[in-house]
């Protein structure tokens, strides 16, 4: 059995690993673009080779169904996503998809006859790397995002979401997905984004919750001017206000044990010898509770406004997406932890499609596979093959438990 799992998983992983990999070692699997579409084609071929029935929706999501004779009732669905952040790692998303297919292979080898249908899902634009809204496919599928709002989203080149989807061959209407009505339980396997399991010396854990998190756009406006001819005391430089705000964000998050990151910035006119007229920066903030998150963002905004007033500049804050805290089904988490030999139950600070489905009322759980580096969203993201195989076995055990 272990040898079969290894053969199936490793063969699939080798096939998918080169797709979208840049010379830097990072991955560029942008949603609805060539590398991500190649990954999806790989998934469809792998699913058809296993005689799974393919179902897609107008949001770019795909589900491959295993529906043995006699399987009925609410389905058990697993899976993840295939897109990546720019210069991302190999494991975030694809590990959950490959492991799901391998888990079905394991169940068939065990001669398991599931009493419920089992689905393997691939959600679109989970990372929000192209259109700025994380978990886009699951938000549309659950109906929490209005189709007209989604359609009008644009990437950095000004391409609308609906245009990108049409160019990628995605057909059908945006909006709530009918296939989701069949889902009784959802389980997502994911590489751990941190080192909790390293410290516990465990290969696999079950998730307890997702911290609330949001993306906020800070627009600092000032006055464009010459970098050499303008005296420092005569400037209205929004870059200084931004810099002070970024420093304040790091200090406040560090002091309170929360997370605050300015990871993207745009300056206008973006000239080396010019004082900018505008600086736009995006804050990613995460905290242990909704109230703590709101206080953290408010404190960062206050710091920005205080500095802006000193510099004669202005600040406008726009929340672009805010996801509240998610507490996964506690009884389901305990049940799965027991089934996995008292696996640890741990929180995560990262957002996932599982959180969107949980928020929509679907009983949901997550499994984490140990990441020895603790690195995520970067080329250093990693999982040992032995831990990956332990994750496949754990997922198979969970699916057998839930679909019996």
From TrEMBL:
Cofactor: Zn(2+)
Pfam family, one: Peptidase_M20
GO molecular function, one term: hydrolase activity, acting on carbon-nitrogen (but not peptide) bonds, in linear amidines
Keywords per UniProt: Hydrolase, Metal-binding, Zinc
Protein residues bound to Zn(2+) 1: 81, 92, 190
Cofactor: record remark: Binds 2 Zn(2+) ions per subunit.
Binding positions (Zn(2+) 2): 92, 127, 377
Residues binding allantoate, per UniProt: 215, 273, 286
InterPro entries documented for this protein: Amidase_Cbmase, Bact_exopeptidase_dim_dom, Peptidase_M20
NCBIfam families, per the entry: hydantase, PRK09290.1-4
Sequence similarity: Belongs to the peptidase M20 family.
Protein name: Zn-dependent hydrolase
